[in-house]
Amino acid sequence: MLTQIGQKRESNFSEPIGMLEDCHKRIQYFLRTLVRLAEAGQQRDLKEDERAALQTALRYFREAAPKHTADEEESLFPRLRRIDSPQVQEIFAKVDRLQSDHRHADEQHSAVDAIGSRWLAAGHLDPQEGARLAALLGDLSELYREHIPLEEKEIFPVAKNVLSAPAQESMGQEMAQRRGVVT
Asked: Quick one: CA dihedral 110, 129, 52, 142, positive or negative?
């Protein structure tokens, strides 16, 4: 992803919730890339730059996105569940829904990856697979259209408010370890 002048700098492991929000921007970017490529690829073979973009987007969802899900499910959500406060109690049902969304998104991304890998290997997209890919990407787009704002407007503000500085630091260290980064 290109950095633009005036763009907010990305967060680091000392700002784990900010990193989760930064990951959402990458999810949206790479999903838009896949949608655009699927639309273009229905009628013709991909150009070389499109092939590279497809490979990059598929790799992002195969390798990086699962770490983001783990950041939420293994680092953020368990910490929230340990806090006994009315503010946190109110969001538990939403956290359960988010975890269900994660499982659904994982299944969809796996199917997208399989179709995308076949597309790269064959050099063209079969019309039936193109239709299946478009449907999968439409489903993912709809899922993220609701999922990301729920996290960013309801879950993350509560987390920033209730998680202590040491809890957030520990969360950031776990996120770094998932990525093989020494902090």
From this structure: negative
CA–CA separation, 4 and 39 (whole Å):
26
Structural domain including 22 reads 16-178
Is 174 a member of any domain? yes
Quote the pTM value: 0.90
- Positive or negative, the Cα torsion across 104, 95, 18, 169? negative
CATH at 97: 1.20.120.520
| Closest C-alpha among 180, 183, 178 to residue 65 | 178
Q: What is the pLDDT along the chain (183 residues), one digit of tens a residue?
A: 554 545 565 778 889 999 999 999 999 999 999 999 999 877 778 899 999 999 999 999 999 999 999 999 999 999 999 999 998 988 988 999 999 999 999 999 999 999 999 999 998 888 999 999 999 999 999 999 999 999 999 999 999 999 999 999 999 999 999 999 886
State the total domains in the chain.
1
Buried b or exposed e, range 167-183, using 16+ CB within 10 angstroms: bbeebbbbbbeeeeeee
The rounded distance, in Å, linking the Cα atoms of 123 and 121 is: 6
